[in-house]
Amino acid sequence: MPPRAAPSRLALLARRGALAALAALSGALFASCPASRSSLAEADGPRALLRYAEERGANHPAVRAADRFATLLERGSGGALLVRVSPGGRFGSEESLVEQLRFGGIDMARVRLKSLALLSPAAKELAAAGLPAGRPARSLAELEAGRRLEEELESSMLLPLAWYDGGSECRILPRGRGGSGFDGLRIGVDSSQASVSFVVGEGGMPIPLALRDFRRALDTGLVDGFYVPLLSAWSERLMESMEVAILPESRSVEVLVASRSTFMRLLPVDREAIRATAAESESFQDPYYDEALSSARTAAGAGG
Amino acid sequence: MISRIPLRFRRLFIDAPIKAKILVLVMTVLAFPFMLSLGLIRENYRAISSFSDDVALFGAIARLGEANARNPELVGAYLESGSFEDLRAYNESVDELSAALDAIEDAASDLETRFILSSIRNSFQSFYEEAHLSIRARRFASPDPYAGYYRAERIARYLDDYASMLTDRNLAASASAYGRRVQGAAAGRALALTALAAGALICVAFGIVFSDYLTGPLRRLAAAASRMAAGDLAVDPVPISSSDEVGRLSDSFNTMSAHIADLVEGLKEKAAVEKRLHREELRSARSARLLKESEFLALQARINPHFLFNTLNSISRDVTLRGGRGATALIDALSALLRYSLDQGGGVSTLADELEIVRKYAFIQDHRFAGRIRVDVVCLVEKPEEIALPVFSIQPIVENSFIHGLEPKVGGGRISVSAEREREAVVIRIEDDGIGMDEERLKAVRRGEDGITAGRHSYGVANVRDRLRIFTGDKRCFAIERRASGGVAVTIALREGKHAERISAAHRGR
User: Fold this and answer.
1) How do residues B163-177 score in pLDDT, each as one tens digit?
2) Chain A neighbours among B 106-135 (CB < 8 Å)?
3) Residues of chain A with CATH 3.40.190.170
4) So what's the ipTM on this one?
5) For the segment A23-78, what is each residue's pLDDT rounded down to a tens digit?
6) Residues 6 or more apart whose Cβ sits within 8 Å of residue B402
7) pTM, whole model, 2 decimals?
8) Is A188 left (phi over 0), alpha (psi -120 to 50) or beta?
């Protein structure tokens, strides 16, 4: 039998290439199979996931301010703290939010002092007094009632973190309509249950609307007037063209409340970050309110 | 596109063995369906894995919901009965809920699910603590053990809501993922079909090009081999474009065909030379044989006892009856005849000599037949002494006319010998008005069979004809036919244009 000729370079390369390609393709076959979902859970992720519930809609200035708070907190903690803002009453009314805060179903919520009245006599006291003109909401925390509020909430497993100007509850009607009630009128309200209940209580028919659509709804006759908590400055501006009746002692205060059971499980550094960002967030809402008012004016045209 | 491949790699491929080239083709052709299959397998595996994860997730959520619904009932049952069995059942349910939570967390694929899970864990922790307080209060008979139970029950309702959120969330995610997967499968199917069709076309085109590349040189080689097998040795060398087996085979074929062509050419030349030599030998042999025959005939004529007897008898009679007046001339003619036959060792004479010897012969015969047979010799050709022809080309014909044509004829006759130039030929005619010959005999003489059937004299005619044909190389140089008026006519044509060289050479040889 004659000796076999030595294989050429290409033959050797082709053999090696075939083996390498086979191995690579086999590897690719196994590597291409997806990893189980547990890998996500096992991967390094945030230290805490915090649910921030809001009764109001996603475009409400208060909710946009909450989004900004969440963003700042996540950035400030280097991604260790993730805050998910859930607007639109997905987790229920303010009363329900307070209840869920107590057992940790949600971690944070911005609620009116009135909603905390059942748990805290101090909250009831502060809500009834309203926010004196020219004073920031935070100033209430310095009061004796404010300090009691903190203690009373602590016993209910709640922790106040920030104080906000909740605006005045205004009854807005076109000039000339007069009157102090909503009897028989279609009244535009924001989507909060409290506003709806108030209008119904005043004899009106509540029509939930986005804040920016209020003026257009009025111009087209969809509504006869509004009932909306507005910042004090807004009320003053609107009084030029509208008959705005600021309810007596209606200047409300809202509090960002955290679930104590959740909060105390966090690392001290995370708790401090939350406190600092919450304090900073007390002024976040102002530009968003201004922006909403500007949008409303633009939408309503020159007379807005 | 091929020209963009670096020359080094192209040379590497061109010079590679056919086995390696085929291996490259097979790998290239197989790579496409293999990659496609790999992609489809991967997609199928992902779909199955995703479905399996979804099933596991929803199963865990269902177990979570069931355990959460049981827990308040079990706590309530314990508060009522204080039974350790109820407490154990509650603890087992708690464990089951915890396990379900862990399973959901393991299967959680998105952030929202993990947020909801966080709510559930926190809530369950609170539930557990409230339930624990109630259980402790019941165990240690503390007042109002149901306060914690009611709080726990409310938490459980929220937990149920969170579980519903979890279900909704994952149903939406699964529906979305399923929709994407269905769309992806449809797109993948279309892509696979398109890719398969395109791949098949590319593979076929590639295969045709590649097979043509491989078999093209073989076809050229086969065509060249077929031409050589058919005897065409003047094939062009097969072009060599590679150094693989076919290239080496083509190179060897070119070398072999060149050698074969050289060998065959040599053999042809050798055969031609041998054939020429053989032909020359045959001609020489035949010429020699005929010469021998002519010499034999001449010798016969020289020593023919009948001719000699008749001639001597004529001389004797002349001496006796006429006082020897004609004897001297007869003796001169006979001696000239004998001398001519003795002197023609080379076999070539001239027309002048041939005619002269005919005159001598005719003179002797005329004396013998006493004028009964007349012989006229006329030469209209200039310089007959320069026209060569075989010796004894005319006299045997004349003798034949004497013996077979006129001697049996009672009234005698006439023999006419003439030589004249007609166009490019010298034509010699020997005609007699004797008894002639029948058609059958004439055909036999023309076929050369006269020697067999006609005895000595006809043998001489055939000898003359053959010698003339060899001498002139012209088969039409000799013709014999019956004359319309009786007798036989023999025509010898010496065409100068055709035989000038031979005649001239013969003449120079004299």
Assistant:
1) 999 999 888 888 888
2) 106-109, 111-112, 114-115, 118-119, 122-123, 125-127, 130
3) 32-166+253-295
4) 0.71
5) 554 555 444 444 444 333 344 678 899 999 998 888 888 899 999 999 999 999 99
6) B365, B373, B415
7) 0.54
8) beta
Euclidean distance between CA atoms B486 and B482, whole angstroms: 7
Question: Across-strand partners of A81?
Answer: A48
Model confidence at B1: pLDDT above 60: no
- Whether B299 contacts B341, CB under 8 Å: yes
Both tokens assigned to B81:
């009965």
**pLDDT value at A211 more than 80:** no
Nearest Cα residue to B220 out of B257, B269, B268: B257
Structure tokens at A166: 């909740």
Q: What is the CATH number of domain A169-249?
A: 3.40.190.10
Average pLDDT for residues B321-347, to the nearest whole number? Answer: 80
Question: Residue A96, CB half-sphere, CA atoms under 13 Å: how many?
Answer: 15
Measured between CB atoms, does B53 come within 8 Å of chain A? yes
According to CATH, the superfamily of the domain at A32-166+253-295 is: Bacterial extracellular solute-binding protein, family 7 (3.40.190.170)
Closest CA to B430 of B471, B474, B392: B392
Nearest to B434 by CA among B461, B462, B455, B410: B410
Angle at B314 between CA B312 and CA B315, to 5 degrees: 65
Calculate the CA B442 to chain-centre distance: 55
Under an 8 A CB cutoff, do A25 and B24 touch? no
Q: Which residues contact B348 (CB under 8 A, 6 or more apart)?
A: B388, B389, B390, B391, B471, B506, B509, B510
**Count of other CB atoms within 10 angstroms of residue B451:** 18
In tens, the pLDDT along A91-139 reads 998 899 999 999 999 999 999 898 899 899 999 888 887 777 778 888 9
At B288-311, the pLDDT tens digits run 777 666 665 655 554 466 777 888
Provide the residue type at B118 as one letter.
S
Q: Secondary structure of B283-299 in the HEC alphabet?
A: HHHHHHHHHHHHHHHHH
Separation of alpha carbons A234 and A240, rounded Å: 11
Residues of chain A with CATH 3.40.190.10: 169-249
In the structure encoding, which two tokens stand for residue B351, read together? 């027309």
When pLDDT is cut at 50, 70 and 90, the band that residue B98 belongs to is: very high
Instruction: List CB contacts (< 8 A) between B125 and chain A.
Output: 104, 261
Looking at residue A34, what is its pLDDT? 44
List of chain A residues whose C-beta atoms are within 8 Å of the C-beta of residue B15: 8, 10
- Residue holding tokens 């000796």? A3
**CA nearest B196: which of B1, B23, B27, B34?**
B34
Smallest Cα distance from B52 to chain A, Å: 10
**pLDDT at residue A302 tops 50:** no
